[in-house]
Design goal:
mainly alpha; 77% helix
């Protein structure tokens, strides 16, 4: 991320377009709840603030859904635990700590990449299971594009928070809607590849562990 930012800064109009697409320009201020306390005193740019707000919107929606006993009891215990992890105070503290460290060292694009990964992987997987349970009766992890579509069709307020947090409006203005569609599809596919690689790695580790027993 740091190398990419240096290249973009020296790339004239291309760099300016990319910075606009990343949402790096804009008024700075403080973080909103639930991150306001942990990031008190930090100067938070508009794009990072929207990433934090987007994660919080998804996580707090999941918290609300989990208050429904029918939902909570329909999830396997490990899925319920992951849901609670998503909106846990320790999780909010960890996110705020990492974002503060990135901002303190001037690494705003790295903070955005970190928040994007939280949205595309952590929030999408854990909220997605409950989203699919509520919509279809099955708590499976939706593929990124399936999650995107389910939010857009069934949870418009959450979809807007997701869209804003991932800066899709800025990308559309910077590169055009057709290029945005291709970029978004690539971004979502990359997130799915990351999850598949991590799942395979965990499976290999478990197999190796059983083999040594």
């Amino acid at each position: 991320m740091d190398t990419g930012e240096r290249v973009l800064r020296g790339s004239g109009d291309l760099g300016a377009g990319a910075r606009a697409g990343l949402g790096l320009e804009g008024a700075a201020g403080g973080a909103e709840a639930p991150f306001a306390g942990q990031l008190s005193g930090a100067t938070v740019g508009a794009a990072v603030r929207r990433g934090l707000e987007g994660y919080a919107a998804l996580a707090e929606a999941l918290r609300g859904w989990m208050r429904d006993d029918a939902v909570a009891q329909a999830l396997p215990p490990e899925d319920a635990a992951w849901a609670e992890f998503t909106y846990g105070e320790e999780t909010y503290d960890e996110i705020a700590h990492k974002v503060a460290a990135f901002l303190r060292t001037g690494r705003t694009p790295a903070a955005l990449y970190y928040l994007d990964c939280l949205l595309l992987v952590t929030a999408r997987m854990n909220l997605g299971k409950v989203l699919m349970l509520r919509a279809e009766g099955s708590p499976h992890i939706p593929a990124p594009e399936e999650f995107h579509s389910a939010l857009r069709e069934g949870e418009p307020a959450l979809f807007e928070a997701w869209r804003r947090a991932l800066r899709l409006g800025e990308w559309s203005a910077a590169v055009g809607p057709w290029a945005l569609e291709a970029a978004a599809s690539g971004l979502l596919a990359a997130a799915e590849d990351l999850v598949r690689a991590g799942t395979a790695s965990c499976a290999d580790s478990r197999a190796a562990s059983h083999a040594t027993m």
